[in-house]
Amino acid sequence: MTPEVASFSGQWSDASPYVTPDGSKLFFASNRPVDGSKTERDDGDLWYVERTASGAWGEPKHISGPVNSEGDENYPSVTKDGTLYFASTRATEHFSAGQPHIYRSRLVNGEYSAPELMPWTSDADDHMPTVAFDDSFMIFFSGGRGGLGGGDLFVSFHRADGTWSNPKNLGSPINSGDYEMAPRLSPDNHTLYFASNRIDGPSTRTRRVNYHELEQELHAIQNGLNNIYEVDITDLRVLDDGK
Q1: What is the biggest distance separating any 2 CA atoms in the chain, rounded to whole angstroms?
Q2: Structural domains in the chain (count)
Q3: Of 119, 12, 19, 27, which Cα lies nearest the Cα of 67?
Q4: Staple 144 to which of 87, 117, 124, 212, CB 3.0 to 4.6 Å?
Q5: Can you count the helices (H) and strands (E) in the chain?
Q6: Residue 6 lies in a domain
Q7: How far apart are the C-alpha atoms of 15 and 85, rounded to whole Å?
């Protein structure tokens, strides 16, 4: 099938699409103007489109209320009760503008409430959240919590008492010495999809290569550019150590 630009896209910088498991809504980030002008925004806001009776997508709707800010909002993920999780670079009482953190906004009577920082928020750059549709766990990218590479994937479990577990590194072989990012979940929460720029083989050569060998490396699949991976995470709960 030949890819097509979505009916609501093609003019502005639209990114981070998230389709709800029931296929009824698509959330995304965009720099498109809110005021009907032709001037793009300096920051990205969160928008959504709804599936119409004909199966097409409706007109984009800007998420009103306190969700969007003067910072960048992106990477939305939504649970079955409508709770919206996303990353934002907004300034807060404790953090300066420009540093990404993960927020939650509950849907109350059809309106999104004031965003709440995740309880384990720290000085780390936490970004790209993806949440199980039943709100049972979140997987996200972090570049400042330590780990195996420059950026790793972490998981936090949402427990029955409403608390969240301390983020835990997903470890090898999901994480590597390079960057793992952009996580997304299958509708049944059993498969994790993510991007990685991992390299097949040692990062430092043990001998000099010739031009033909170098060309083969550059055209190989794991050549330092991002690829998309999938992994079965049915047994993810074994990482919940009760902390």
Answers
A1: 65
A2: 1
A3: 27
A4: 124
A5: 1, 17
A6: no
A7: 16
Query: Distance between CA 121 and CA 102 in Å, rounded?
Result: 8
CATH number at residue 221: 2.120.10.30
Q: Is 121 exposed, middle or buried (0-12, 13-18, 19+ CB in 10 A)?
A: middle
7 within a domain of the structure (yes/no): no
Q: Are 192 and 230 in contact (CB under 8 A)?
A: yes
The DSSP annotation for 143-189 comes to SSS--SSSBEEEEEEB-TTS-BPPPEE--TTTS-SSBEEEEEE-TTS
Query: What letter represents residue 50's amino acid?
Result: E
**Mind listing the pLDDT tens digit of every residue in the chain (243 residues)?**
899 999 999 999 999 999 998 899 999 999 999 987 888 888 999 999 999 999 999 999 999 899 999 999 999 999 999 999 999 999 888 888 889 999 999 999 999 999 999 999 998 999 999 999 999 999 999 998 988 888 999 999 999 999 999 999 999 999 999 999 999 999 999 999 999 998 876 667 888 989 998 898 888 888 888 999 999 999 999 888 877
Write out the residue range of the structural domain in which residue 233 sits. Answer: 14-239
Q: Tell me whether residue 111 is in a domain.
A: yes
In sequence order, the 6+-apart residues with CB closer than 8 A to the CB of 201 are 222
CA distances from 179 to 4, 15, 111, 117 (A): 29, 20, 36, 24
Nearest to 20 by CA among 134, 180, 109, 111: 134
What gap in Å lies between CA 31 and CA 45, rounded to an integer?
6
Instruction: Retrieve residue 116's tokens.
Output: 């709440």
